[in-house]
Amino acid sequence: MSRTPLDTVEHAAATPDVELPWAELGLKKDEYERVVEILGRRPTGAELAMYSVMWSEHCSYKSSKVHLRQFGEKAPENDAMLVGIGENAGVVDVGQGYAVTFKVESHNHPSYVEPYQGAATGVGGIVRDIIAMGARPVAVVDPLRFGAADHPDTKRVLPGVVAGIGGYGNCLGLPNIGGEVVFDSCYQGNPLVNAGCIGVMRHEDIHLAKASGAGNKVILYGARTGGDGIGGASILASETFDDAKPSKRPAVQVGDPFQEKLLIECTLEAFREKLVVGIQDLGAAGLSCATSELASNGSGGMRVTLDDVPLRDSTLSPEEILMSESQERMCAVVEPGKVDRFLEICEKWDVIATVIGEVTDGDRLEIYWHGGKIVDVDPRTVAHEGPVYERPYARPSWQDALQADDANKLPRPATSEELKDQVLKLVGSPNQASKSWITSQYDHFVQGNTVLAQPEDSGMIRIDEETGLGVALATDGNGRYAKLDPYTGAQLALAEAYRNVATTGAKPLAVSDCLNFGSPEDPAVMWQFAEAVRGLADACQQLGTPVTGGNVSLYNQTGEAAIHPTPVVAVLGVIDDVARRTPVAFQEEGQLLYLLGDTREEFGGSAWSQVVHDHLGGLPPKVDLERERLLAEILIAASRDGMIDSAHDLSDGGLIQAVVESALLGGKGARLIVPDGLDAFTFLFSESAGRAVVAVPRSEEVRFNDMCGARGLPATRIGVVDGDSVDVQGEFTLSLTELREIHEGTIPALLA
Amino acid sequence: MTARIGVVTFPGSLDDRDTQRAIRLAGAEPVALWHKDKDLKQVDAVVLCGGFSYGDYLRAGAIARFSPVMEPLIEQAKAGLPVLGICNGFQILTEAHLLPGTMLRNNHLHFICRDQKLRVENAETAWTSDYTAGQEIHIPLKNIDGQYVADQHTLDTLESEGRVAFRYLDVNPNGSNNDIAGVANEAGNVVGLMPHPEHAVEPLIGTGRTDGLPFFTSILKKLVNA
C-alpha cells in the first residue's frame, strides 16, 4: 500500500498547486478562496475538513445570521438573563439562587433518513448542550411535524421517531413533559424533529465553552471516536489514502443512551468538585467544532495531538477524526493539578477520558498527527468568522392570492346536526386527536418532580422541594398560520406558547426557538424566514421575553416544494410554588366556565378550515400582544390566588376543542350557552388569539369578575362544568363516551 | 432511631434519587450504595431501583446481577434482609434468582408509561403490610420489558402460596402471565414489581396520588418495631 506524504502545514505551503476537493465538501469557490486568503496558502486536508464543516449552513448560520441579529438588537431589558445567545444554551435566573438553561434544536434531516437513530441522537445532542452549561438536565420536550397522518411513509417515520425519542430519553432518566405532534402533507419528505431540554443549576455553577489559562489540559471524554456521522470527510480520506479501508460509512450517527447517562453523571460530579475551567460538547462538526470554539472563546490558543484521540476504528484518517460526529463525547479544559481527579471520576463512571492537548499562550489552534503539524489556524476564523450571506429575498408572487382566498367565506354548517358532525370531525382529526398513544411511550415520571406533563398546556417541573419553586415550558408553532403570513405566524407561535405557560400559572420569562424553513437559496423562502424572524423579534421585545438561543434548520424541502415556514417557539416560565399550578382538566361539577378575551370571525389557517374544507387561505388570526400580556397576568393572578381550578388556552380547534379536552381529561362534562353577539359556529370554531377558558368555583365568581373588570379583560360566562356530556344549548349534545372514543381512537387506528 | 434503607446505584440507574426521596418522605434514612461496594454498609433493607442498568444490554438486569454489591445482597437476602426490586430492580432480582420468573418485552413491543391500577394481593410481606389485601391502588408503570412470564409450575406455586403480591387491574398493560405485576419470595422479605411506587408518594407530583408511600412505611414499621 503506497501512501502519499502526510499533508502537513509545511507540505501544503510547499505544494500550492495541489487540488483539494473543496466543492465536494460543500464549500463554494469564493469560500475556498477566502480560506486560502486567511491562511496565506492552500489549506491542508485537515484544515479544509474543519473549515468546510464549520462554515456549513448548519454550523455557521451563514444565511440566517444577518436576520438573527435582531434577537440581540431588539432584546428587551431583562434582569433574568444570565447567559445569552452564542453559548451552548441561554441561561436565566429563576430566583432563590437557581438558574435555568433551556434550548430547542432540530434533527430533521437525519430523522427522515433513519427515524429511530435520527430522533434519538437529536435528544442526545440537546441534552449535552444543557450539561455543557453546568446544569443537570431535568426534562425534555419534543415538537414534531410529520406528513399526512394516513400517508404510508408517516407510518414508517413516526413510530421510529417516537421510539427513538423514547428509547434515548427514557434511558437517560429525563421526563418528557411536552411538545406537539402535527400532521400536514407539506412535511411529507421533510418531517421536523425538534428536541428541547431544560437544565437546572445554581448560579455559581454556570460553565462556559472557553479554553483559558495556558498549560491547562484539554480532555476528551466519553465514547470512542468512530466513522459515524462523517459526511464529506471520506472524500478527503480517499484523496489521501489508497482504497484499502471501509468505504461506506453511515452519515447518520448512532446513539448509545447508556453512555450518555454515564457522561451526564460523570460531568456533574466533576462540576460539583469544581474541576472544570471550560467545557464543550461534541455535536455537529465534532472535534473541529469543540476545539475551534473552545480556543476562540478563550484567551489563548490550543495545541492538540490527534493521535491521542481514542478510536473505535484505527483506520480513520485525521480528517475523519476531526469531522466525526460520533455521539456521547465531551471536551473539558482542566487545570493540570486537577487532571488526576478528573480522570478518577471518569474512571468511576467507566467513561474513557484522555488528555489530547493543552491551552497555549499563543493565539493559534495547532493540531498534530504522527508528529506533523496538520492544522495551524486562527480558531476564530474557523468558529466565528465564517461567511455571512445577504441572501436575496422577495415576497412570493403567490402570497397575495393565498391571502385573498378568504377562509371566512367557506361554507359553514347550516344546521345543528351539521355543526355537531363537524365538531366530531374536528376532535377526531389527526391534529386535534389525543396524542396519548405517542406520549405514553415517553417516561413522564422519572426524577419525581413532574408537576404537569402533556397534554397539559405546558410541562411543569418542580426545582426546589422545600419552597416549591418550579419552571414551566411550552412549545408552539403553527405552520399554516406562518404560511399565510410569516410575520404574524411567528408572533402567534410566541403568543400561544406564552399563553400556554400562563394558563398553568407560571410567569413567562424567556424564549428559545427552532426555526424550520425551506431552502435559503429560494428568495420566497428567505422572505418567509426574514419575516418570521422580524415578527418574533418584535413580539419578544414587546412581551419582554428575550430570545436566549435557539437553532435554525434550513433546506427542509424536497425539490421545489418547501415545508410551511415553521417557527417553533419555546417559552420558559417560572412559578413560585408549584402547588398553585392550574391544570387543564375540569375538577368539580358546578364550577362556572368563563371565556376570557374577544372572539372574532377568524378562520384563516384554522383547524376547521383544514378538517372540513381541506383549505388553507386568508389571513391568520390577529395578534394583540398587549392583550396577551393582560390575559397572562390575569391567569397567573387567578392561579396564585385560587380563583380558578382549571384553565385551557384556546388555539387550533377553537373553544370546542379546548372544552372537549378539559372535559375528557377531567371526566366531567360541560353545558355551554352561546353568548349574546356570537353565532354558535363562530363561538365554537373561531381561532382568535388572546383567549382562554377557565373554570371558576362559585365562591370565587365575584372576586374573579371584579379582577377582570378592573383590568379591562373581557370575561364572558359561557356555561358550567356538569354531567357526562358536552352540551351546547339549543344545538347538540355529545356524550363523553362518544367524544372519548373518537378523540382517543384516531391515532392508534392510524399508527398502531 | 430510624431504619436505614440502602438504594443501589448501578451505571444506568435512573430512579435512585427518587427512591431515596420516597424513603425520606416515609421517615426512614436513605443510604446510597454503589454497585462496586463490597458490603451493604449495615443497612436494614435495600431497594434496587428502576432504570436501565448497564444499558439493559444483553438482557435487562443480566449484567447488574453480577455487580460486586450483589454478592452480599444475595447472601443477606437469603438470610432475611428485606429487599425491594422496582422495575429494573425486579428484573435484577429475577436474574439473581431471588425471585422466580422473568420479564420479556411488552407484548405490544412499545415502551409504555401510564398510571396503572393494581390490586394488592398479599399484604403480609415486608413491603406491603401497610396495605390491606384486596386494596386497589394506582401506581405509575413505565417500561419496555415488563411482561412477566414463568413456567406453569412456577405460576401454580406462586398462586397457591399467595406469592403474587400485585396484579394488574382493568388493563393488562404488557401481556404478563396471570396479570402479575409483582411477586414475593417464600419468606416475604424479597418483593419485586414492575410499577414504580416511588413515583406515587407526593400529592402534587406525577399522577398526584400517594398510593406508593405504604411500601416505604410498611418496611419502616417492620424495621423499627423489630
TrEMBL record, chain A:
Mg(2+) 1 binds at residues 105, 551. ATP binds at residues 61, 103, 513, 550. GO terms for cellular component: cytoplasm. GO terms for biological process: 'de novo' IMP biosynthetic process. The keyword Lipid biosynthesis does not apply. Its main location: cytoplasm. Substrate binds at residues 106-109, 128, 253, 325-327, 553. Its EC number is 6.3.5.3. Transmembrane segments: none annotated. InterPro entries: PRibForGlyAmidine_synth_PurL, PurL_linker, PurM-like_C_dom, PurM-like_C_sf, PurM-like_N, PurM-like_N_sf. Residues 86-201, 456-575 form the PurM-like N-terminal domain. The keyword Nucleotide-binding applies. Residues 214-369, 588-725 form the PurM-like C-terminal domain. Pathway: Purine metabolism; IMP biosynthesis via de novo pathway; 5-amino-1-(5-phospho-D-ribosyl)imidazole from N(2)-formyl-N(1)-(5-phospho-D-ribosyl)glycinamide: step 1/2. GO terms for molecular function: ATP binding; magnesium ion binding; phosphoribosylformylglycinamidine synthase activity. Keywords: ATP-binding, Cytoplasm, Ligase, Magnesium, Metal-binding, Nucleotide-binding, Purine biosynthesis. Monomer. Part of the FGAM synthase complex composed of 1 PurL, 1 PurQ and 2 PurS subunits. HAMAP family: PurL_2. Part of the phosphoribosylformylglycinamidine synthase complex involved in the purines biosynthetic pathway. Catalyzes the ATP-dependent conversion of formylglycinamide ribonucleotide (FGAR) and glutamine to yield formylglycinamidine ribonucleotide (FGAM) and glutamate. The FGAM synthase complex is composed of three subunits. PurQ produces an ammonia molecule by converting glutamine to glutamate. PurL transfers the ammonia molecule to FGAR to form FGAM in an ATP-dependent manner. This is Phosphoribosylformylglycinamidine synthase subunit PurL. It comes from Streptomyces coeruleorubidus. The lineage of its organism: Bacteria, Bacillati, Actinomycetota, Actinomycetes, Kitasatosporales. The gene is purL.
From TrEMBL, chain B:
Pathway: Purine metabolism; IMP biosynthesis via de novo pathway; 5-amino-1-(5-phospho-D-ribosyl)imidazole from N(2)-formyl-N(1)-(5-phospho-D-ribosyl)glycinamide: step 1/2. It catalyses: L-glutamine + H2O = L-glutamate + NH4(+); N(2)-formyl-N(1)-(5-phospho-beta-D-ribosyl)glycinamide + L-glutamine + ATP + H2O = 2-formamido-N(1)-(5-O-phospho-beta-D-ribosyl)acetamidine + L-glutamate + ADP + phosphate + H(+). Keywords: ATP-binding, Cytoplasm, Glutamine amidotransferase, Hydrolase, Ligase, Nucleotide-binding, Purine biosynthesis. Its EC number is 6.3.5.3, 3.5.1.2. Part of the FGAM synthase complex composed of 1 PurL, 1 PurQ and 2 PurS subunits. It comes from the Bacteria. The keyword Cytoplasm applies. GO terms for molecular function: ATP binding; glutaminase activity; phosphoribosylformylglycinamidine synthase activity. Its main location: cytoplasm. The active site is at 87 (nucleophile), 196, 198. GO terms for biological process: 'de novo' IMP biosynthetic process. The keyword Nuclease does not apply. It is found in: Cytoplasm. This is Phosphoribosylformylglycinamidine synthase subunit PurQ. GO terms for cellular component: cytoplasm. It holds the Pfam family GATase_5. SUPFAM superfamilies: Class I glutamine amidotransferase-like (SSF52317). Part of the phosphoribosylformylglycinamidine synthase complex involved in the purines biosynthetic pathway. Catalyzes the ATP-dependent conversion of formylglycinamide ribonucleotide (FGAR) and glutamine to yield formylglycinamidine ribonucleotide (FGAM) and glutamate. The FGAM synthase complex is composed of three subunits. PurQ produces an ammonia molecule by converting glutamine to glutamate. PurL transfers the ammonia molecule to FGAR to form FGAM in an ATP-dependent manner.
